[in-house]
Design brief:
alpha+beta; seven-stranded mixed beta sheet; 5 helices
């Protein structure tokens, strides 16, 4: 039986498998985050309960597991400002964009499936869902996420002049769809 990767909208029926994929991505190098499956599941459920929450998954038809994920939620410029101001410096560079925005909370491809174009396919699907109804997209990541940063920058995301207060490798990116 041949493995196919299908793109599907996020559905809570996939919450556990999505949290497992999240752990596969972020508990390995270069991320090395110390999270439990329960932590990942709680974060996912909390984010998906927010206003405008949505997501895209990539599912392996062979193993019926999630191999890539993206999820986001609506956020105002004021909410973004309040979210980033205590976490990033210099404080005066924290944006407060106008219009309807979205916070791209998580985006990842499990290590065994990386370098096969899935990230690019996932990003295209994510942007296709987000861009028609929003004016801007915000996210934060790490400087060491070289492949992810290159992918995001190729899609017109701009790195802001902000650095994490507690984690100096943390950075912020924005994509303005409409000004």
């Amino acid at each position: 039986m041949r493995n196919r990767i299908e793109l599907i909208p996020y559905d809570s029926a996939y919450a556990l498998r999505t949290a497992q994929a999240y752990l596969e991505v972020f508990s390995t190098p270069p991320w090395n985050e110390a999270l439990s499956l329960n932590d990942a599941l709680s974060q996912l459920e909390s984010d998906m309960a927010r206003q405008g929450a949505c997501g895209v998954l990539m599912r392996s038809t062979f193993a019926d597991n999630i191999v890539a994920f993206a999820w986001w939620f609506d956020i105002t410029g004021q909410e973004l400002y309040e979210r980033w101001r205590p976490r990033f410096t210099p404080k005066e560079n924290v944006p407060q964009p106008e219009g309807r925005g979205v916070y791209l909370m998580e985006f990842g491809v499990v290590p065994t499936m990386q370098h096969h174009g899935l990230g690019q396919r996932l990003l295209r699907a994510t942007l296709a869902d987000i861009e028609p109804q929003h004016d801007w997209i915000a996210l934060n990541t790490h400087r060491f996420a070289h492949a992810g940063l290159a992918l995001l920058k190729s899609a017109a995301f701009e790195e802001l002049d902000l650095t994490g207060v507690q984690i100096p490798t943390r950075i912020c990116l924005m994509k303005y769809i409409r000004h």
